[in-house]
Amino acid sequence: MNAKVGLLCVAAALVAGPWLLWRIGAVRAVAPLAVLQILGGVALGPSLFGRLAPEAHAAVFTAPVLSSLQGLAAVGVLLYVFVSGLHLDPARLKGEARGLKRITAGSFLLPFLLGLGVGAWIAAFVPGAIGPRGDAVTFTLAIGVCIAVTALPILAAILREAGWIGTRLGQTALALAAVNDAALWLVLAALLAIAAGAAAQIGTTLLFSLLWGAALLGCARLLRSLAEGEGAEARMLVLGVALCFVSAAAAEAIGLGYILGGFAAGVVMPPASRAALIARIEPLTATVLLPFFFVSTGLKATIDPGSAAFLSVLLLATVATFAGKVAGTALPARQAGESWSFALALGVLMQTKGLMEVVVLAALLDAGMIGPVVFSGLIAMAVVTTVIAAPLARLALGQRGDIRTRGTPRAG
């Protein structure tokens, strides 16, 4: 098959297939479009399409097609997290800073600690769990990182589909996910540096991260002076997207990951330009470009439900993720004065993994720290936790909780 024809056929299936399925009322009632896009990406990979029709799969996903998909995936997810950053308004959360600190710490530390326990068990009892260049300590730390992940891009998509992204619930969830991602990439960068025998790089990473943050704040001041006047909308579109790409490139070079770089660029954009940028970028990105990210990551997963080792990893990781994220988020939120409905909904949303987990897992697999069975089991866990997030959040909220999320932030 001609490479261009193959790419265009895959693109048509990615864009139209999940959307057509989502248009069915019974499906739309239980699953956001983003979840169907995730499942579509997995289905097109070796776990389903590649298993049922290996020759057709190989004919469609040739090397040129895969290369093009990876490029589109990077641009799609980058623009989407940029829009997610535009949706986050730090000013709305200033009055809740003290509570957010406790919630942030709990939402990362408790699942990380549970992940360490799961990692130690898997390392001891699952054959082939540790990669060729890993050891019990680095493997255990790696599983802790994977359990602590909150998938910022997919969380933003779920919030958008549910109509929560502008509410207190949505704003708080985005803020927590952003801090979780920052901690995740810092720990992951340190872990990979240790695995590569380059522990001295950790201090360099922290230093360049501070410089990157200072540069972003400087760009934000400059952009505020350009955000008004004739032609401001078109000017800010070009400058905003350019800043997104530059910030992502810098964050990737530092070791923080391009996804965090794109999100940070959206956060620092001038408030006067945000609505226009969202209106121009979000619809095309969410429905056309983001599915390429899902299929690109789904192609790396091989899910084998007949394997006892696979099922063990899946079960333990899912339980640790759900318990750690929900308890680690909800209990501090309740202590900060939130209602149980708000706190539990926030905790359920924070256990969303999405296929961003694959980004972390692929890095660990490439570094030789985890084996294929762990890679596949954790990918399946990411799908399960993402699928259950929105329905359980709705269940936790109920009518009173939904009203509560739309209130104004408290002053203390």
Task: Summarize this entry quickly.
The protein is an all-alpha fold and 412 residues long.
Task: Please tell me about this protein's structure.
The chain is mostly helical and 412 residues long. The protein is 79% helix and 0% strand. It contains 19 helices and no strands. It has helices at 3-22, 25-28, 33-43, 49-52, 54-60, 63-87, 90-93, 97-125, 136-148, 152-162, 168-195, 201-224, 232-254, 258-267, 271-298, 308-335, 340-350, 356-366, 372-405. Helix 1 (3-22) packs across helix 3, helix 3 runs parallel beside helix 15 and helix 18 (356-366) runs antiparallel to helix 19 (372-405).
How many H/I helical runs? 19
DSSP strand count: 0
Q: What's the mean pLDDT score?
A: 83
Question: What does the radius of gyration come to?
Answer: 21 Å
What is the element string, with H for helices and E for strands?
A: HHHHHHHHHHHHHHHHHHH
Estimate the helix proportion, in percent: over 70%
Strand content: under 5%
Shape type: globular
Structural class: mainly alpha
Q: What is the end-to-end distance? A: 62 Å
What does the largest sheet look like? none
Uncertain ranges: 400-412
Topology readout:
Layout: H1 3-22, H2 25-28, H3 33-43, H4 49-52, H5 54-60, H6 63-87, H7 90-93, H8 97-125, H9 136-148, H10 152-162, H11 168-195, H12 201-224, H13 232-254, H14 258-267, H15 271-298, H16 308-335, H17 340-350, H18 356-366, H19 372-405
Helix pairs in contact: 1-3, 1-6, 1-15, 3-15, 6-14, 6-15, 8-9, 8-11, 8-16, 9-11, 10-11, 11-12, 11-17, 12-13, 13-14, 13-15, 16-17, 16-19, 17-19, 18-19
